Each structure stands twice: as structure tokens, then as C-alpha cells.
Amino acid sequence: MTDANTHKAEMKAVQAKHREKIAEAKDPGRGLVLVHTGNGKGKSSSAFGVIVRALGWKQKVGVVQFIKGTWITGERQFFGRLGQVVWHTMGEGFTWDTQDKDRDIAAATAAYQKACEMMESGEFDLIVLDEINIALRYDYLDVAAVLDGLKARSDKTSVILTGRDAKPELMEYADLVTEMTEIKHPYAAGIKAQRGVDF
Predict the structure, then answer these.
(1) Are 31 and 159 in contact (CB under 8 A)?
(2) C-alpha atoms less than 13 angstroms from C-alpha of 1 in its C-beta half-sphere
(3) How many distinct structural domains can be found in the chain?
(4) 13 lies in a domain?
(5) Which of 19, 40, 178, 197 has a CA-to-CA distance to 3 between 20 and 30 Å?
(6) Upper half-sphere CA count for residue 114 (Cβ side, 13 Å)
(7) 59 with 127: CB under 8 angstroms?
(8) Which domain holds residue 134?
């Protein structure tokens, strides 16, 4: 166990290094692209947390949901009551429910067209493309077209793309990539999804 003086000296060195890094960092002058992926829970939840942060700064936020369809979720009800988030749920439900690839492609295409309009408009500080990685995974959308849409976005707009199995090209383009890793999940123990925790 380190003594108080040693600890103080160590923390002073850490502080100096941290301040030096902050001083060297530059504002990119554009919104960022964030990818939340991986097989663990929390990808969309994390994005919704960023929405709360953006709203705290009185920024304008939009959400386009690609998969969840009419599923009633706590976050959708909450942000709906707030009335501060432009919300479009475009998917028809989970991919295994529709079982119709042409319908899924049409729904994903319509959702991405809406997303592109929003990204290019210059009206939004943050847009969440919820579960778009799933639409890409099943080839309902073309990754090159998604990248083109991201590149055409307004400079002020940051975008978060969520869902498992993010395409490598998307991760390469993004400014931030976070992979959620499942260590343990109640579903594996036969526990059904819980209101307020899972949806």
C-alpha cells in the first residue's frame, strides 16, 4: 500500500499527463460518428443516454429506428412525453418476425431515406440510427450507401449507429467504436425481458 506522499506524487503526474493531452486535443469542426456494437446488452441504451446529454445542452435530437417496429419501449414513451425528440420508428419488427426479405429491404430503405433527409437538413445536433447495423448485417441496406449518407451529413450533426455486427467499413469510418461484450445475460437463465431494464 502506497503512503500519502507517494500517492500524491503519482496522481500529480497523472494529472499533468491528462492536462497535456487535453491541451493537444482539437475540435474537429464537425459532428462525430459513433458506433455501438457487440453481442452485449446496452448499445441502444447507451445511445439513449447520449440523447439525454444532448438535450441537457438544449441540442436538437432525432431518432430513426430500423428494427423495433411498434414494440412499446420505455425510452420511446419517455421521449414521446418530453416532446423534444423527433422520433421515427420505421422498421416492421424483429427480422425473424416479418420473414419477408423484400418487405424488410423496403422498410430499411425508407428508414434510411428519412435518416439521410434528417442528417443533411442541418437541423439536428444528434441523430441516433437505432439497430441500423442489423439492417446492414442482413443486407437490407448497402454499407457504401450508408457511408455516403454519413459523409453527406451536415457538419453540425453527430450520428450514433447501434446494433450487433457493425460492418468493418463503418467501424473504420467512425470516430468512436464501442463493443459491448456479453459476460452474463438473464435470458440465458430463462428470465424474460423486464420492463424498465430491457425495454
Answers:
(1) yes
(2) 2
(3) 1
(4) no
(5) 19
(6) 22
(7) no
(8) 30-189
What CATH number is given to the structural domain containing 52?
3.40.50.300
Q: What is the DSSP string of the chain?
A: ---HHHHHHHHHHHHHHHHHHHHH----SS--EEEEESSSS-HHHHHHHHHHHHHHTT--EEEEESS-TT---HHHHHHHHHT-EEEEE---S-HHHH--HHHHHHHHHHHHHHHHHHHHHS--SEEEEETHHHHHHTTSS-HHHHHHHHHTS-TT-EEEEESSS--HHHHHH-SEEEE---S--GGGGTPPP-TTTT-
pTM of the model: 0.90
What is the per-residue pLDDT across 85-131, written as a single tens digit (0 to 9) for each?
A: 999 987 665 555 556 788 889 999 999 999 999 999 999 999 999 99
Grid cell at residue 93: 419488427
Half-sphere exposure for 63 (CA within 13 Å, toward CB): 27
| Residues 162-192: tens digit of each pLDDT | 999 999 999 999 999 999 999 998 888 899 9
Burial, 42: exposed, middle or buried (Cβ in 10 Å; 0-12, 13-18, 19+)? middle
Whether 197 maps to a domain, the answer reads: no
Question: What size, in residues, is the chain?
Answer: 199
Single-letter residue type at 15 = Q
- Specify if 194 maps to a domain: no
